[in-house]
Amino acid sequence: MEYTGSKYIGEYVDGRMEGKAKYILPTETVYVGEMKDGMFHGEGTLYYPNGSQYDAVWENGLAIKGTYTFADGLHYDEKNWHYCDGYDRRFFTEIRNGLKPAGMAQLTNMDPPRKVPKGWYDCGDGFYNPVTRVIKDYRNRFLRNADDDEHEWITRTCRKGYTEIVGHRPKL
Q: Which Pfam families match (predicted)?
C-alpha cells in the first residue's frame, strides 16, 4: 500500500485482502465492498470524489454487472440512454425541475453554473488551462495533462471563462 498510495481497511485471510473492506485509491476514489485474493469480488461500490458512484457485482477484479449514478442522481442506463442526445438536449436538472422561462438559459447542469477563470475552460471534471494544457479539479488539484485530442475537444466544445473572478485565480 505504501508504494501505490492506496489505503486498505478490512479483513485479511492468509495475508491477502479478503472479506469486507474499504479500499481508498490515491485519486480519493473509495471502494466499499467484498474482496477476494486482493481483488474486488462480490458486491461493492466505487465512490468517486465528484459525488458519483458505481454499484457493481465484481468477479476477480472485473465488474460483471453494475449501475453508474451521477452526482446529481441521474442513473446511467446503457440500453435506454436518451439523456442529452440529439433529440433531447435538456440537462438532468431541467428534466427533474422543469425548464426556466424564455430568455433565462441554463448553461450547465449546475444552476447557477460555476464561474470559469478568465482564459480557462470548464471541462466537466475541472478547469483547463489551454496554455499549460493542465486540467485541475474544482479544488485546484492537478488531474491530468491534456493530449492533442482532448485539447481540441475542450477548446471546441467547453465553456470558456471571459471575466476575471475576484479572489479566485487558479495557479498556472
A: MORN (PF02493)
Cα dist from 70 to 12, 76, 81, 111, 113, whole Å: 32, 8, 13, 16, 17
Domain that holds residue 126: 114-161
- Please check whether residue 171 lies inside any domain of the structure: no
User: Does residue 95 form part of some domain?
Assistant: no
Element containing residue 32 per DSSP (H, E): strand 30-36
What span, in angstroms and rounded, lies between the C-alpha atoms of 128 and 123?
A: 7
Overall domain count for the chain: 2
Whole-prediction pTM: 0.57
Q: Which residues contact 105 (CB under 8 A, 6 or more apart)?
A: none
Q: Which residue has the cell 465553456?
A: 159
Q: What is the mean pLDDT of each run of 10 residues along the chain (172 residues)?
A: 83 93 93 96 94 94 92 77 63 69 68 85 90 92 92 91 63 50
- Assigned C-alpha cell, 65: 454487472
Identify whether 56 is part of a domain: yes
Give me the half-sphere count of Cα atoms (radius 13 Å) on the Cβ side of residue 43. 0
